[in-house]
């Protein structure tokens, strides 16, 4: 007999589960039903309300005496925070961020590539980390992939105006970064779902390895890569898919003094490497856009205060 | 239909974003918020309101000349997520790039009769070979965007709020726009065989007629039709004002430098000594716009 009861309870529970979800579309009707049973605040509990009956029989002082309709009419002074608990806390979490790179401000040579960043958030809004960008793997051999692409525009301009524009290709760069997250928020998508995002500023200092592409005198010049000290600043947007997984869009400007190819050929010493570079360094803003993924570790966290 | 689409999309996104906690957050099948819309008392900044926005736009990735456009955006927002309107703007300021300055500087050196290298054969070859492409005033031959008029649809699928420094809270939306654009352009006028115009015409000099500086290249105006699309963020600063930041693309072909670069050989990839429509190259023509919007009527309503 007990087994049958248990079986029925399980079956009822299974049936009730989807029923609950449907019923929630009309919360007002559901909530109104017991009020009608209570008949304007009479002390008699509803029929079939075994729990209520039991309480009233055991301790009449605990028997419900609330007029639900009247209670529903009470003015509510609900205080809502504009953005309640942050969806994803960052404090004391590591962030790993693989990303794809594309050039933003170089019409002459595009420098696509791949990068990896790691950050540790020592507060919820500040992090320290490292990132590495790879635009070429030529340091591993001449046949290794090189993502730098010389635009056809360069050849057209050289042909039309007989002017050589010094070009540069990038190998890799790395930087020690500090990140600050002053902005966060949430979006309702099509008024159907909600996702959370934050915006951050990032800055740091690091190294850029690059070399000129021989344009002015390619017969005699062959450049080796050089390292340049490069501070950088950037802005980013992170869209959370869940509390540990997000998409990242970032724009970063690497600023450094670049050594460009000398546009003048020394007719007496064309193969002398000291004559290949321009006398003055050129301040270069190498701006790249990054799109990538962000993974926070550990995956879970606990809020300090309840919601 | 839209609801069914998103009902299909939600599980897909859920699978991609596997996390027990996230599921508990996003699929609230129980509790007082079950079945409730994501936002109650949503401030309807757009619905049923006209939007007038002065706009300033800055072109991106220009090879020879940057343009600052000044104009306005006028929209009527039918709902909070759909608006119709138009974007209009004219090129108020043209700024030459470093490459243009260098081309002009090299031209000036090449034609400087007092220069030490003027008599060298290589310099004379430079003057002769570039005469078709580079005129006395290089900036005047550059392709220029004069004005843009674009009727457009604005879609606002994402609406939310932004906390800045945990003190300042701003209603924000992410919008997309799309439409046809009519673009007024100035480009180098056609020249070369069959046009009756000499592309390499030069002024007279003490050395003889037609041996001096290169005459400035004539230009002409034309109208291009192109699609335009983009996306942007709107930050609602008040009940009837907002700031906007948009990215816009206007993909179409044009001749930005006024050069003869195509028309002959395999795939017409080599110069044909003519400047014509074959020398136009497809450009994405991107720009960033900043705007300040005013909404009318000024009264702000909220959803249920």
Count of DSSP helices of chain A? 5
The interface involving the most residues is between: A-B, 41 and 54 residues
Globular, elongated, flat, extended or rod-shaped: what is the shape of chain A?
elongated
CATH architecture of chain B: Beta Barrel
Compute the CA-based radius of gyration of chain A.
33 Å
Count the strands of chain A? 10
CATH topology of chain B: Porin
Largest sheet of chain B: 8 strands, antiparallel, barrel
Short descriptors:
heterodimer; A: 307 residues; 8-stranded antiparallel β-barrel; 5 helices; disordered N terminus; B: 304 residues; Porin; two-stranded antiparallel sheet; 4 helices; elongated
What does this structure look like?
The complex is a heterodimer of chains A (307) and B (304). Chain A is an alpha+beta fold. Chain A is 19% helix and 39% strand. In chain A, the strands form two sheets. An eight-stranded antiparallel β-barrel of chain A has the order 1-3-4-6-7-8-9-10. Chain B is mainly beta. Chain B has a single domain, classed as Porin, CATH 2.40.160. In chain B, 15% of the residues lie in helices and 44% in strands. Chain B has four helices and 14 strands. Chain B has an eight-stranded antiparallel beta barrel with strand order 2-3-4-5-6-7-8-13. In chain B, strand 10 (263-264) and strand 11 (270-271) form a beta hairpin. The radius of gyration of chain B is 27 Å and the shape is elongated. Chains A and B meet through helix 5, strand 6 and strand 7 of A and helix 1, helix 2, helix 3, helix 4 and strand 5 of B. Strand 6 (167-189) of chain A pairs antiparallel with strand 5 (144-164) of chain B, so a sheet runs across the interface.
